[in-house]
Every structure is written in C-alpha cells, then in structure tokens.
C-alpha cells in the first residue's frame, strides 16, 4: 500500500481486466495518461493497494483517503486469478487499513444489485444504502 503508481504494468493489467470481463463498449485501450486521469488525478489523497503473486502484479485497488473514511474508487485484477476473489480480498484489506488508521467508514461505491460485477458488495454487513433518497441501514 502506498501512493499510486502509473506504469506500463498497471495500465496493461487495467486494460486486460476491462477487456476480458467485457466492461467496455470502446475497443481502444487506455494509455498511461488516460489511466492517470481516470484513477490518479484527484483533489484528495489517493492511495494504491497492489497485490502480487510471486513477482507478478495480479490486482490493484485505488482508494481516496479522507480523515475518517476511505472511498474505494476502483479495483482491477488479472481475470485468470478470478477464482481467488481478489476484489473481495482487497475490500478486506481496506477494512483492515481503516481499522489500523482509525477511519470510521469504508465507502464501497455504487451498488447495482443486478450487476454481476457489483453484487458482491451486498455481502459486507452492516452497511447503508441510499434508497428513495434516504440512507437505510442494512444489517442482515
């Protein structure tokens, strides 16, 4: 975990994740500049959680750090490692980071129940959802 890095390896992994999981309607890959604009250029402190298997980078999670919170911006991983549930593992690491740094909240971002790429977020309890304009506690 540390400051975000923009390099060829991360950009390649991002494009691999996006393409093999069918997450884009655009066939053009991101370059270093586009990657940086999308994930790194922010008005707040941004941190990177990088995960390796041996010497191979297999996942990266980008998060924005506030005084009392961490906001999970984006996580991408090598699809050949999908059975390891690296997205879920990354959230558990971010929860541990929040506990270690006395942050009260971890924001997992948008939740779309019908999306197979976002439905995993419902497994983390307890949490709140904005339903009908009101924050509702989900504790089950």
Task: Give your account of this protein's structure.
The protein has three helices and six strands, in the order ααβββαβββ. With 140 residues, it is α+β, with helices and mostly antiparallel strands. It is globular. The protein starts with 7 loop residues before the first helix and ends with a strand.
Order of helices and strands: HHEEEHEEE
- Total helices: the number is 3
What Rg do the Cα atoms give?
15 Å
Largest sheet: 4 strands, mixed
Uncertain segments: none
First-last Cα distance: 31 Å
Mean pLDDT, to the nearest integer, reads 85
Could you tell me the number of beta strands?
6
Largest sheet: spatial strand order: 1-2-3-4
Shape, per Cα inertia axes? globular
Helix share of residues? 25-40%
Report the structural category: alpha+beta
Q: How much strand?
A: 25-35%
Spell out the blueprint of helices and strands:
Elements: H1 8-20, H2 32-40, E1 45-53, E2 56-65, E3 69-77, H3 86-100, E4 105-107, E5 127-131, E6 134-138
Parallel strand pairs: 3-4
Antiparallel strand pairs: 1-2, 2-3, 5-6
Quick recap of the structure?
The chain is α+β, with helices and mostly antiparallel strands and 140 residues long. The chain contains 3 helices and 6 strands, in the order ααβββαβββ. Helices cover 26% and strands 29% of the residues.
């Amino acid at each position: 975990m540390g400051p975000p890095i923009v390099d060829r390896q991360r950009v390649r992994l991002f494009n691999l994740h996006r393409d093999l999981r069918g997450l884009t309607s655009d066939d053009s890959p991101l370059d270093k500049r586009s990657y940086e604009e999308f994930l790194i250029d922010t008005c707040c402190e941004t941190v990177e959680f990088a995960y390796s298997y041996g010497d191979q980078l297999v996942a990266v999670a980008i998060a924005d750090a506030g005084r009392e919170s961490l906001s999970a911006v984006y996580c991408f991983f090598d699809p050949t490692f999908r059975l390891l549930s690296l997205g879920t593992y990354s959230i558990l690491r971010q929860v541990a980071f929040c506990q270690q740094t006395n942050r009260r909240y971890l924001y997992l971002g948008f939740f779309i129940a019908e999306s197979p790429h976002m439905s995993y977020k419902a497994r983390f309890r307890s949490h709140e959802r904005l339903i009908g304009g009101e924050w509702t506690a989900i504790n089950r």
